[in-house]
DNA sequence: CGGTATCCAGCGCGATACTG
DNA sequence: CAGTATCGCGCTGGATACCG
């Protein structure tokens, strides 16, 4: 986690990218911006992300205070993920990025 | 370049992050948003980025159409980098990210 | 000054298997 | 269902040296 570790040095753009720059974090955050989701639902929404990676990325987002994890003591177990208020503060930027990404893709050969 | 290569698949957030997610790209773009810069100037602005990495990241940004590279046939050689119009279209988002990054850092222990 | 070339470490990430 | 555990590969990026 070299990238995430150095959160305090460098400029703030780096800090932000360190938080959302993980392989799947952008998409995870995007889907969570549409509402609370269970682990299995996220898995289905990110078919090419392995279970292990999904877990890891969610844990990091949780540590960074963007995502809240709620475990329900049921059988079978249920775990729900949702954005924290701080996480939600990133959503507008994420949507801008998404829009920009669409324009970028339209330029491709 | 696994990340950059798959620009066409996945959601657009991924595409955008694939373009600006490189280790130094965010900062390079940020500095270039303040005006045209020579290679050596960028080096001084990113002291912890090696010359090799700076070159690589600039080349990728150039390929992605965000940065224009101009070589002046002088001695000693002079090379200037500036944002393309398309690159400039990313600047507002970058500034939002920067502002968000500052808030993020203020939350840190 | 503004680059290549070369070599190489580390870790990001995937694949697979097992568990409460 | 929602995870951990373990193993290993490949790419990212660092160090260093050389070039027009």
Automatic annotation (TrEMBL), chains A, B:
Q: Which residues does the UniProt record annotate as the domain HTH hxlR-type?
A: 11-109
Q: Which GO terms describe its molecular function?
A: DNA binding
One Pfam family, please name it.
Answer: HxlR
Keywords of this entry: DNA-binding, Transcription, Transcription regulation
Q: Is DNA-binding a UniProt keyword of this protein?
A: yes
Q: Which Gene3D superfamilies match?
A: Winged helix-like DNA-binding domain superfamily/Winged helix DNA-binding domain (1.10.10.10)
Is the keyword Transcription assigned to this protein? yes
InterPro entries on file? HTH_HxlR, WH-like_DNA-bd_sf, WH_DNA-bd_sf
Record's protein name: HTH hxlR-type domain-containing protein
Could you tell me which species this protein originates from? Chondromyces crocatus
